[in-house]
Amino acid sequence: MSDILGIGVNSLMAFQYAMTVTSNNVANANTPYYARRLVDFNEVIFNGGVTIGDVRRAYDQVASTNLVANQNRVSYDAAYYNRLISFESVLEDKQSNITLFLNNSLKALGELNTNTSDLTRRQTYLNQLEFLSNRFNRISEQINLELNNTNGAIGNTIDNINVLTQKISQINMDVKSVLPENVPALLDQREQLVQQLAEYVNINETFLENNQIALSLENGFTLVSEIGPTMLTTGTDPANPERLLVKAVIGANEFPLNSLITSGRLGGLLDYANDTLEFSKNSLGRLAITIADQLNTQNKLGMDAYGSIGGNIFTDINSTIFTNQRVIANDDNTGSATMTVSIDDTSALTTDNYNMVIDSANHYIISRVSDNSVVTSGTVGGLPAQVSLEGFTLTIDTGSTLNVGDRFILSPTRGAAAGFNVSIDDANLLALGYAATPIVGTQNGGNGSVQNFAVTDTTTSTFSTAGQLTPPIRIEFLSPTSYQIIDLDTSTVMEGPITYTSGADVFPTPGGYNPGYQFQILGSDIKAGDTFDVVYNDKGASDNRNGLVMSGLYSKGINDGGKLSFNQSYQAFTAQIATTGNALKIDLDSAKSLLEHAQSQYDDVSGVSIQEESTNLMRYQEAFQASAQLIDAARTIFDTIISVTRR
Amino acid sequence: MRVPTSTFYRQEYDRFADQWDKMSTALRQATDKMKLQYDSDDPVLAVDVNTTMDYIDTLTNYGMNTTLADDRVQTYDSTMKNVIGAVQSLSSLTTLAATGTIDDQGRGAIAIQMQSILQVIMGAANSQDGTGQYIFAGYNTESPPFMLQSDGKYHYQGSYDTTMINIGLNTTVVYGDSGFEVFGNIPTGNGFYTISPATTNTGTVSMGGGTVDTTGSFVKDDYTLTFTNVAGVNYYQLDGATSGVVVPPTVYSPGATITANGMTFTMKGQPNAGDTFSINPSTKQNAFDTLTDMINLLKTPIGSDAAAQAQYATKLNQYVDSMNQALDHFIAYQSIIGTRGQQISSQYHSVSSLTDIQKGIFTKIATIPEYESISNMKAQSNALDMTIGIYAELQKTLANILRKFS
Fold first, then answer.
1. Could you tell me where the DSSP H helices lie in B217-305?
2. B275 closest CA partner among B305, B304, B237
3. Measured distance CA(B305)–CA(B315) in Å, rounded
4. pLDDT tens digits for A192-234?
5. Cβ atoms within 10 A of the Cβ of A333, count?
6. CA A423 to each of CA A293, B210, B340: distance values in angstroms, whole numbers, following the listed order
7. With an 8 Å Cβ cutoff, is B47 touching chain A?
8. Spatial distance between the Cα atoms of A57 and A607, rounded to a whole number of angstroms
9. Cβ contact (<8 Å) for A574 and B39?
10. Which of A67, A399, A459, B197 shows a CA-CA span of 20 to 30 A to A580?
């Protein structure tokens, strides 16, 4: 009989406790990472009845690890994608993209070519070129702004990571010292912190004894151990002042960690800054260099509205300010090398940066940053030394000392979009005509004509004095098959007889004369005495021959070994950004569904189901009432016994 | 399987978010009609879209130049019509000037009329376009191409090159012709040789312009025709500077025709011994100098001197031939203009049809048709409604379970 009462009482206690646990579960149904508690009932041995055996956290380590991994990936993709998409909209804006400005300037040039003596049209073209260069500058600024913002976000992320790792370490300490019944609540809290941390950086969880966890980055680098957290900080990359390094503080030392951070928000931000933005800078820079180089070179072959040989339209791509900034010496270098990079050939330029390492005395290795492939290596003999590779030449200046271990980054294209500027104000300096012009003898009896007249080099002595050719020449046919070249200033024969071939380049002559222009004489019936003069073009007010060549440059394949025109080069660049964005978007979508799946798996074990809890509650309620009935029954039995004995 | 409450809500939330996302895409597409918001939505399609847009831009960029080129061709065409009309009207005047009965006064009157024809042609050669550019000056569009210089000749001031402009990618067309080619580079005489009497001739022999049998047979040389008189009989002899004796002394009678070295010409009148004629290969001269020469010839009084009249007749025939060369030259040029006009208009048509095709392609690949975007929107909004409906039903079920306990 006392047993019945005892059983009733301990059951009552047990079910009441179970109901408390259930109601706690229900209350925390929406608490993130609250792992539902399961009540284990045990039969009370010997005396009978029931008691609470254990209150367990429904928790699955595999589900948690899985969740962390997927959280890493989603955060990486989301951070990268969201930044990229806003940058992409800058590049693709239909009202202000580079393609539009290129086409507008080409249009202005086409209209200018109909009347090159019209200053208004000249000014319009020059303005269009300024708009174009401004657009490059703006995008370049935008990239720098993106870089600053991203670096700021990296700093914030690292602050958050430090806060989280500290808290996690604290909980690791606390679970050792608190009462066992308080442990589950701490573990829930820690789980939440771990999952938050997983948003920021890639972590591997290791479950240790005594409810401890350790967290590490790639390659087992410890972020949180039993001893405590490793603090992170940022610092400037000694190799590249624009690049931010994530470092671990260990004692008095700092170790760069960038290569260990592969995922999470931090990974996404680092990749965005170091891959996409770096690639964008270089791609735009390469295009800016190409446009400046092509138009400058062509303008220098022409004659401007004042009758002088043209100069640069844009700031010279190899002016000192540019050649210096293309080499970044590592801050840690012990040598004192000064180096410059000058561009030789825009069609051979890549969008890469190059690492240069002095690996042994006076011996260097230059490799691409993108894939670490070695481009060239060699020994520096006397100074100044020059190394030519992939469209540019590196010059190591006199007086440089190269110490073993010194490092340099060569960036031929990187800052060029910012330095892309129109350097002339006067539109009359656009050199749209040629200083030389061919004249077919007016009394020629034959059918010879001049083909493809073009100026190829204005640095020759022919063009050394403004306003004249030095000398003007006459090609005079001695017979239908041979001619001689006469200096028209002195009327003396310079060279001849030269065998005539219809359609062959006239220069250089067999004697090696090359005045800096080129043409062919075409004709099957040329008479002796026929002349072809090349004289100074003093009647060229509306000469547009060089202007037409300039407008041809817009559709000429240049970049990537002569494959891409200006527009194609830009479109190849934006297509690359778009492809990266698309890959991230697709990955983000699949990562999201995987995360959803991982979350469901986790919740499947740990999540609270109100329906389930309600059912449990009902069960416990009924059991509780039944237990109360037991006590009641025990009392009734007791009363009956008492009343029987009273008689 | 257990469906934990938070999972249930989260899944519902995800479904809503997903539906809203699609709804907002459908809404954007219905508004701006473009399939893609960012290139990264579909990089492959984006490359096509951008290339097509760039192509359309490039095509339409040359619209202005094509119009300018077309205007210029029209200007050339109407200018040359005037020139050709004026030169053709010369023939009635020269016919009149060639009649034997006309006197010095009559010739003077004809000269005045020819002067006005010269002015018409001059005006055409020095014509300017709307912006003040000389259209027959090659590159040298700032100054009039033909100017009368102190030597009494018209000198070409323009450039010998023609100005080209782009009317399409890699398509150029002549925009500014060289006046030298149009008005200047015209052979004199019959196009092969000229015949000029020595000023010292005292006989009355005059000659027509002469002809050439076949183009290739004319032997280029400086010839001299010399008349001699041996025992009262007139002989003529033709020598070439390099050919030597071409026609040995031959008895002359009026109306005799010489055919030698590809040349054929007829002589009229009576020679005196020692009279000579030079027959030289044609040179090139501009139409203004030729016409000026003709006017000067008409202005010079010849009175009734038979020898002077013979000289006059020979010279006039030469100038008439020269002006006919000019006329042929102008007509040939006009046909070049016609061809150029066709080239421009075919370029114009091919550009406009290409532009239409490209725009069609652009519409097809880049934009979303209205019916599609609207039906997308309807479908999305229905799906959203249904999601909301299902959510509400599930909520009710949950509430029902809880109600059971009360």
1. 287-299
2. B237
3. 15
4. 999 999 999 999 998 988 889 999 988 888 899 888 899 999 9
5. 18
6. 13, 65, 39
7. yes
8. 10
9. yes
10. A67
